[in-house]
């Protein structure tokens, strides 16, 4: 499933595309919100792995404005619940992810991204 927790770790891997290849931009997406059990310790533990600006920008692109522009010092319950929602409950079911650099398109069908490349695109 394409959730923002995994999207935040993905960059374009087309041969020679190694600058400005993150984050991939969503296009023509269909979203589904699916509740997931809230685990504050998991969210806190994952926080250091997040590229914050990319996450906030992507969430806003998808219509969610619950995260602050800057990562807060205080991790209160409201913040952790909003972060949990953005990372784990927003599912991209259909559409595509597009590299901002080379414009390669990674299609998403039934919640599954196709990250495979043609032979001439492989590094």
UniProtKB/TrEMBL annotation:
<dbReference type="InterPro" id="IPR005651">
    <property type="entry name" value="Trm112-like"/>
</dbReference>
<dbReference type="InterPro" id="IPR039127">
    <property type="entry name" value="Trm112"/>
</dbReference>
<dbReference type="GO" id="GO:0070476">
    <property type="term" value="P:rRNA (guanine-N7)-methylation"/>
</dbReference>
<protein>
    <recommendedName>
        <fullName>Trm112p-domain-containing protein</fullName>
    </recommendedName>
</protein>
<dbReference type="Pfam" id="PF03966">
    <property type="entry name" value="Trm112p"/>
</dbReference>
<dbReference type="GO" id="GO:0030488">
    <property type="term" value="P:tRNA methylation"/>
</dbReference>
<dbReference type="GO" id="GO:0046982">
    <property type="term" value="F:protein heterodimerization activity"/>
</dbReference>
<comment type="similarity">
    <text>Belongs to the TRM112 family.</text>
</comment>
<comment type="subunit">
    <text>Interacts with TRM9.</text>
</comment>
């Amino acid at each position: 499933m394409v959730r923002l927790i995994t999207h935040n770790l993905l960059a374009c891997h087309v041969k020679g595309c190694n600058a400005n290849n993150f984050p991939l931009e969503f296009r023509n997406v269909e979203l589904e919100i699916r509740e997931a059990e809230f685990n504050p310790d998991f969210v806190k533990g994952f926080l250091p792995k997040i590229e914050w600006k990319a996450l906030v920008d992507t969430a806003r692109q998808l219509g969610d404005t619950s995260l602050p522009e800057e990562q807060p010092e205080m991790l209160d319950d409201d913040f952790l619940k909003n972060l949990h929602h953005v990372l784990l409950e927003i599912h991209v079911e259909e559409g595509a992810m597009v590299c901002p650099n080379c414009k390669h398109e990674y299609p998403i069908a039934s919640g599954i991204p196709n990250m495979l490349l043609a032979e001439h695109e492989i590094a």
